[in-house]
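Open question from group meeting: does this chain pack into something compact, or does most of it stay loose? Before anyone orders reagents, we agreed to write out a predicted structure and look at it together. Recording both the input and the output here so the notebook holds the full record.
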Amino acid sequence: MARWQPDPRGRLLRAALDLFAEQGYDATTAAQIAERAGLTKATLFRQFPDKREILFQGQAATLETIRRVVRDAPAELTDLAVVDAVLDALTAAHTPEQQDIGAAITALTRAHEALRERYVYKRFVVTETLEVALRGRGVPAPRAALLAETSIRAYWDGFTVWTTARAGAALGPFVHDAVRAVREAATEVARL
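Structure tokens returned:
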């Protein structure tokens, strides 16, 4: 192995997923992940505070994408159009090649309480980030909260379906279907 190889975070993710599949999440140590990735344990801990965070490394990029899209959206766009632009940007960040990674992380999250707790926290932070960004655009707080909650829920619903879809499928259509379903349900509930 070469002395230095690029993408330590990606290598750690691949190594962690392989080891979790081989010997289980609880039985896998940070040292084993680092060794499998061809890195030192110190390098792993410079990148992540613990092995759990390796799986959630995309959170910072997700939050930055939300803030950037809302901030840069033309003033004449409706709040719904801004939310759609955010969802398009989030789905564009996922390539079909990442589908297996998403499936593996989803399965691990369902199987381990500590990962479920971290997933719930991530979802909360992502939702809150969108809500705050919308309020910063002048969207009234109740509407910003509802748009953020329902849109991020639809995003995760579409993502989950995507992880079980045919290999190589694009994420966007699954998120759009989920958004449509959530908005139709919200319209029906509003009529009650």
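Observations to bring back to the group:
The chain has ten helices and no strands.
The mean pLDDT is 93.
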